[in-house]
Specification:
The chain has 259 residues and is α/β, with parallel strands linked by helices. The chain has ten helices and seven strands. The two termini are 35 Å apart.
């Protein structure tokens, strides 16, 4: 997560148009379900790091009856997430906090589960963050996250161009480095799964829709200049996915139980 607001109104509207209301990462409720597969969440305390517009947190609170706390560093996102929870009468099970980058503002052992979708991608000091995640988890607690990753040691020209079009902070790591950093932080039962294929196909379909059926909606919603920018943004994303320069990785890990 960067230190300044990066998700301006046009980008938020665009992401919701393509990925669904309340979502700033692809896959909607299906990928949220994939993220928490195998976890028993009813009544559990769940921390959603990088909660964005609150779609995933509200889904976990509503479908799984979890007690979810979402955190983000961007005030307008936290405001919109709170409004979403209130509109769905979920504010008693889904709360949202504005935080600063760095240490997590919670006591030790505050949560049973941590989830995050696409947020660690933007954090350079993952080792510190993973240590904080371990600290705030109960012994035996789980952390599930998916993030954009790369197999490259240095970004290709195409990947650099994608970063430029996105206009967001990226701190991509290799999938192997995720496992190493999680282990160094003290996590165990670590699994790192390549989850790229589905979005490689999906991003191509989204790009084609943006050139066709969605284009007029994008122009009406965003204006011609921003609509054309996002079409080119998606084209650049398709290129790096199809080249293999950008990948998606699903990580699952646990805090050791007391001995």
């Amino acid at each position: 997560m960067g230190k300044e607001a990066e998700y301006h109104d046009a980008m938020i509207r665009m992401l919701e148009l393509i990925w669904g209301e309340g979502y700033m990462v692809p896959g909607g409720t299906q990928k949220t379900d994939d993220l928490v597969r195998g976890l028993k969440l009813r009544g559990k305390r769940v921390l959603d790091i990088g909660c964005g517009l609150g779609g995933p947190a509200c889904h976990l609170a509503e479908r799984y009856r979890a007690q979810v706390t979402g955190i983000d560093i961007e005030p307008q996102l936290v405001k919109l997430a709170r409004q979403r929870a209130a509109s769905r009468k979920l504010q008693h099970r889904a709360s949202f906090l504005l935080v600063q980058p760095g240490l997590l503002p919670f006591p030790d052992r505050s949560f049973d589960v941590i989830v995050s979708a696409g947020t660690f991608t933007q954090i350079a000091n993952k080792r510190e963050l993973f240590a904080e995640c371990l600290r705030v988890l109960e012994p035996g607690g789980a952390m599930h996250n998916f993030d954009w990753t790369t197999p490259l040691e240095e970004p290709s020209d195409e990947l650099r161009y994608f970063f430029e079009m996105e206009g967001l902070t990226y701190a991509l790591d290799t999938p192997a480095s995720y496992a190493q950093l999680l282990e160094a932080a003290g996590f165990t039962e670590i699994s790192v799964e390549d989850d790229t294929d589905w979005y490689r196909r999906q991003s191509r379909a989204e790009y084609e829709s943006m050139q066709g059926e969605f284009y007029s909606q994008m122009v009406e919603l965003l204006g011609q200049e921003d609509a054309d920018h996002f079409v080119e943004d998606w084209r650049s994303m398709v290129v790096v996915f199809e080249k293999g320069d950008l990948t998606q990785t699903l990580c699952r890990s646990h805090k050791p139980r007391r001995r």
